[in-house]
Amino acid sequence: MCWSATADLIAGAGITAVGIATVARAARRPRDLPLAALPLLLGAHQLIEAAVWHHDGGSGPATTAWAVIALPLLPLWVPAAVLCAAPHRARRRLLVPLAAGVATAATLAYALVTRTVTAEIRGHTVGYTLGLSHTGLIVTGYLIATIGSLLLSSDRVLTLLGVLTAIGAAVSVVLWQREFVSTWCASAAVASVVLYHWAGQRHSAAPEAAASRMDDHRSHRPRKP
């Protein structure tokens, strides 16, 4: 993230707290839990980067842990979580970003196994280097998996999250091209607080949906002669 280890600690703690509340709201709908847990993951990610700052970058365990979440895990987690929470009518089209996520995650996981990721403190940002080839193709697959799945979710709140995340990606490319991964993950973490509102809407809708199913069941119950 930009600025300092302190900024990462504050942001990480705040986003993690929001993540705990979001998971609590989603408890009634188990299919929503993977997506509701995203702020928890991103909050932990910011806390890990605070450790990267503390160690002045390098290639230690904190850098590796940060890279595992940012690179192979997120492009797999996000589309899978969106697909899990999506209504049946949206699931077929969500297979496209999921496939992009699987391919991207596999490529990045292989790169992490065969190469060493290093972090470098660059003023008020952190830059990560892994020595990837075909970077443009990998970034495209990454964005299709993460932002694309949100935009195709058929849910207004998730679409808003996708738009905010896309704006964050564009700003990060323009202002911090060499530190894109770090700054964009930070903006995505902040944007993920939108999921608290999403989980609240789903929580409110759950009792109504259950009541509707009960009414339908009663209306179709055969009457005794």
Q: State the assembly state of the protein chains.
A: single chain
The overall average pLDDT, rounded, is 87
Question: Kindly, what is the distance between the CA atoms of the first and last residues, rounded to a whole number of angstroms?
Answer: 70 Å
Secondary structural class: mainly alpha
Tally of structural domains: 1
Question: What is the helix content?
Answer: over 70%
User: What percent strand?
Assistant: under 5%
* Major sheet: 2 strands, antiparallel
Q: Low-confidence parts, pLDDT < 50 over ≥5 residues? A: 208-217
Q: Class, according to the CATH hierarchy? A: Mainly Alpha
What is the H/E order?
HHHHHEEHHHH
Shape, please? Answer: globular
The assigned CATH architecture is Up-down Bundle
The helix count comes to 9
Keywords: Membrane, Transmembrane, Transmembrane helix
Pfam family, one: DUF6629
InterPro entries: DUF6629
Protein name: Integral membrane protein
In short:
The chain contains 9 helices and 2 strands; from the N terminus they run αααααββαααα. It has 225 residues and is mainly alpha-helical.
Describe the structure.
The protein is mainly alpha-helical and 225 residues long. The protein has one domain (5-204): Rhopdopsin 7-helix transmembrane proteins, CATH 1.20.1070. 76% of the residues lie in helices and 4% in strands. The protein contains 9 helices and 2 strands; from the N terminus they run αααααββαααα. It has a two-stranded antiparallel ribbon with strand order 1-2. β1 (118-122) and β2 form a beta hairpin. α3 packs across α8 (180-191) and α7 packs antiparallel against α8. The longest helix has 27 residues, at 88-114. It is globular. This is Integral membrane protein. The chain crosses the membrane at residues 6-26, 33-53, 65-87, 94-113, 125-145, 157-175, 181-199. Keywords: Membrane, Transmembrane, Transmembrane helix.
